[in-house]
Amino acid sequence: MRRSIRPEFASAPAPTEHWPDAQQPRLFLLRRDGVIVAKAKVFPRRITTEEGPLVVAALAGVLCDPDRRGCGYGKAVVRAAFGLVDDGTFGCAFFQTGVAEFYEKLGCRVVTNRLVNSLAVTPSARPFWDEAAMIYPAGFAWPSGEIDTLGPGW
């Protein structure tokens, strides 16, 4: 029996501003035979850089049914999510992962900025728990220096 992925809606910080309709949170699902086999979530996230504020497409909750890995389903939902960058809705996507190689094949790159969350009890603690912080597209003019995620990681 195949396992299906239950849609899990990772919570993002409560919105503090109205986002344009095009930037509203989205959940990308891929179904096969009525069963969800892959998903990815995108939502707007304001971060602060040494060059000023930046609104990014926060990619989160990317999952693929373990029994169906290698079928291109994860790649398909991530490409759909990155479509919001490709069409100009967002300038770039910013996210964390433990599988950087997968995303590098999709045109992403690892960034090595120091990450902080100025709103946390311990602001200097890294807000991302996965080993790699990444952006899409790889060629985006990502700022150097410290990045403040202005909230917990996603």
Shape: globular
Computed structural class: mainly beta
* End-to-end C-alpha gap: 31 Å
Number of strands: 8
When the domains are counted, the total is 1
CATH superfamily: Gcn5-related N-acetyltransferase (GNAT)
Proportion of residues in extended strands: 25-35%
Average pLDDT score: 90
Largest sheet: 8 strands, mixed
Report the order of strands and helices: EEEHEHEEEE
Weakly predicted, low-confidence segments:
1-14
Radius of gyration: 16 Å
CATH architecture: 3-Layer(aba) Sandwich
Number of helices: 2
> What is the top-level CATH class?
Alpha Beta
CATH fold type: Aminopeptidase
Helical amount: 10-25%
Question: Could you walk me through the main structural features you see in this protein, from its secondary elements to its overall organization?
Answer:
It is built from 2 helices and 8 strands; from the N terminus they run βββαβαββββ. It has 154 residues and is mostly beta strands. The protein has one domain: Aminopeptidase (3-Layer(aba) Sandwich).
Topology:
Elements: E1 26-32, E2 35-49, E3 52-64, H1 73-86, E4 93-97, H2 100-104, E5 109-111, E6 115-116, E7 132-136, E8 147-148
Parallel strand pairs: 3-4, 6-8
Antiparallel strand pairs: 1-2, 2-3, 2-8, 4-7, 5-7
Short structural summary:
The protein has 154 residues and is mainly beta. The protein has helices at 73-86, 100-104; strands at 26-32, 35-49, 52-64, 93-97, 109-111, 115-116, 132-136, 147-148.
Keywords:
154 residues; mainly beta; Aminopeptidase; eight-stranded mixed β-sheet; 34% strand; globular; disordered N terminus
